TrEMBL record:
Pfam families in alphabetical order: DJ-1_PfpI (PF01965), HTH_18 (PF12833)
Residue ranges annotated for the HTH araC/xylS-type domain, each copy included: 199-297
Protein name per Swiss-Prot or TrEMBL: Putative transcriptional regulator protein
Domain of life: Bacteria
Keyword Transcription regulation: yes
Keywords, ordered alphabetically: DNA-binding, Transcription, Transcription regulation
SUPFAM superfamilies: Class I glutamine amidotransferase-like (SSF52317), Homeodomain-like (SSF46689)
Coiled-coil intervals: none
Molecular-function GO terms, alphabetical: DNA-binding transcription factor activity; sequence-specific DNA binding
Xref: Gene3D superfamilies: 3.40.50.880, Homeodomain-like
Length: 306
């Protein structure tokens, strides 16, 4: 039986995701041995009614229009609940599923830069920081802007065969099996919170990266107790001082791995790790890759210095 899908083309949708989704399903119909897919692009804000579809896909946004949820789109999403329609959303469009109340009790994902904001919705069970696609049966969510490709290939694999998805991926040169969202996640500190002592602690971390800062030393340096520093960090940055230090060190290590030829041992020491094995363990936990794997992935041979 042909699978009927709708791709909702609302204001602000990423044009490349609209065209790319159509192209990937064209390839699916070219390569499948089954009945294939019928994809219809519709405007959920303009049409008075929409035909039934087995799958509804919400593309990512190119701008910040996702922050003002379209009431008509939200109402249409709510009306789909319990109908058996699978709803797939990618990047910031996942927030519209949350606005519609469809993510209660679910494990979901979104763009790595939006994890903390998505966690603020009550009822979400877990925000998965590792995987690019999370399948919860009738709700499937994807990570960053161009993870719509991973989302489509997942749907092809689910409704057709993995072999079809793999053939599309090979033909289009898309990495089907080895990408994780954690490979791309970066740490960009917030300096706009307005807490002068937290900001002073952040600057100390930056200016003296090689120092083996502990939370107690950092608290002493900015004339606060450990407990007060922890409370102020949580209020200002939604992170503990210890987690901030870990993320800052790993980010500095990523930049050195990408932009220098320093040895991993030297980088570990430069960012405050006296034990290389502890550094490698912390790096893998953060990035899903070892430092060497990260360097190989981020510095492909055709871009590396001669």
């Amino acid at each position: 039986m042909t699978i009927n899908l709708q791709l909702w083309h609302y204001q602000g949708a990423l044009p490349a995701a609209i065209a790319g989704t159509e192209d990937l399903f064209r390839l699916a119909n070219r390569f499948t041995a089954g009945p294939g897919f019928e994809l219809q692009v519709v405007d959920p804000s303009g049409a008075s009614s929409l035909p039934h579809a087995q799958v509804v896909i919400l593309p990512p946004f190119i701008d910040d229009r996702w922050e003002q949820a379209d009431a008509q789109v939200i109402a249409r999403l709510q009306a789909l609940q319990g109908t058996g329609t699978l709803i797939a959303a990618c990047c910031a469009s996942v927030f519209w599923l949350a606005e519609a109340g469809l993510l209660t009790g679910r494990t979901v994902t979104t763009h790595w830069a939006l994890f903390d904001r998505l966690r603020q919705f009550p009822g979400i069970k877990t925000v998965d920081q590792r995987n690019l696609v999370v399948d919860q049966g009738d709700i499937v969510t994807g990570g960053g802007l161009f993870a719509f490709q991973d989302l489509v290939l997942h749907l092809v694999s689910r409704f057709d065969r993995y072999a079809t998805a793999k053939r599309i991926a090979d033909f289009a040169m898309i990495d089907l099996s080895s990408r994780l969202q954690s490979h791309y996640q970066r740490f960009y500190p917030d300096y706009s919170h307005g807490d002068a002592q937290v900001l002073a602690a952040q600057r100390l971390c930056e200016q003296q990266t090689e120092q083996a800062w502990s939370v107690s030393r950092l608290a002493d340096a900015v004339a606060l107790s450990e407990r007060t520093l922890a409370r102020r960090f949580q209020q200002a940055l939604n992170l503990s001082p210890g987690e901030y230090l870990r993320q800052w060190r790993i980010e500095q290590a990523k930049q050195r791995l990408e932009n220098t030829r320093q040895s991993i041992e030297a980088i570990a020491a430069d960012v405050g790790y006296s034990d290389v094995s502890n550094f490698v363990r912390a790096f893998r936990q953060n990035a899903g890759l070892s430092p060497a794997e990260f360097r190989d992935r981020k510095r492909p041979s055709h871009l590396a210095d001669g």
